[in-house]
Prior knowledge:
By secondary structure, the protein is an all-alpha fold. The protein is built from four helices and no strands. The chain has helices at 2-16, 20-34, 38-66, 71-77. The termini are far apart.
Amino acid sequence: MKSSILLYLIIIIGLLARSRVLVLAAFCLLLIKELELSPLAEFISNKGIEMGLVFLLMAILAPVLLVPLERKDLAQMLGG
Length: 80
């Protein structure tokens, strides 16, 4: 129960700070707790950082898909 109160408090802080990311993260964790999905909570606890890094790298690399890249551009970037 104490963790639920903490998550509600974090949601309120996120709303006051207008941080959608914080509100969404706390709400998702609260939902996982209330639905008693402890295996999912353990998975997030163990692999959350790794999953976050994967999504961050995908966001950084996404422009490669959106901008046409020619061989000469690639050679120039690689110093050749």
